[in-house]
Predict the 3D structure of the following.
Amino acid sequence: MEIPRLKPRGETASSARVDFSEMTPELLPFLGQAAYIQLEVFENLSRAVSTAPTLTAKEGLSAAAGIALAKHHVLIAEIRRRDAKPDEVMAPFRSAIDRYRAATTGSDWYELLLSSYLTAGMLDDFFIRLADGLPGDSGPWVAELLGRDAGTDVLVSELQAGIAADSRLGSRLAMWGRRLVGDTLLIARSALHGTGPETPVESRIEPVFTELVAAHTRRMDLLGLTA
C-alpha cells in the first residue's frame, strides 16, 4: 500500500469538511479497530512506566495508561452491548496493528515516549473525523470519548526535559518523529471502507491527512522539534 500523498508543507488544504459517509466502516469494525488501537496505546505506555527513570514519571505515565485503558473498556462495552464478542470484532485488525506497533515503538525510552505521544494523537484525531460517518448518535459519543484529555502532559514534560539536557537527543527525536508519520497514515488509511491500494480516493482524503500532519507538526513544535 502506498503512503498517501500530501501537499508540500505550506500549501493550504481545502477548508471544506470531507464527507466520510461512504468511507466510514460499519460501526462494529470501527469500534473493534479503535478499541484495539487504545489497547496498544495502553501497552506502550505501560512499557514506558516499567522503564521510567523516576517515580514522578512512573506516576504520570501510569495515569495516562489508565486513561487509554478506560477508553478501550468503553469501546469494548459498546461492542458487547451490540451482542458481539470483542475478541472477534478486534481480531481482523490485530496483525496489522501489532506490526505497526513493532515498527513504531522505538529503540529507547525517549523514542517510546515520542511515539506514544505522536501516534496516539494522530490516530485519535483521525478516528474522531472518521466518526462523522457513523450512524445515529454513535459518531458524537465516539468523538467525545476519543477527544478526552489523554493525560499526555507527562510525556511532553519528560521529553522537553530530556531534549533540554541533550541536544543530540533532540536531533535524533526529530528524525524519529518524521519517520512515524508514514506508518501512522497507512494505519489510518486502512480504516477507510472500500479503499484498497488501487482505489483513487487520495484527492478526497488528502485534506484530512494534511490536517493530521499539521497537527503532528504542532505537537513536534511544542517539543522544540522540527517536523
User: Anything to note?
Assistant: Residues 36 and 67 are 14 Å apart (CA to CA). The chain has eight helices and no strands.
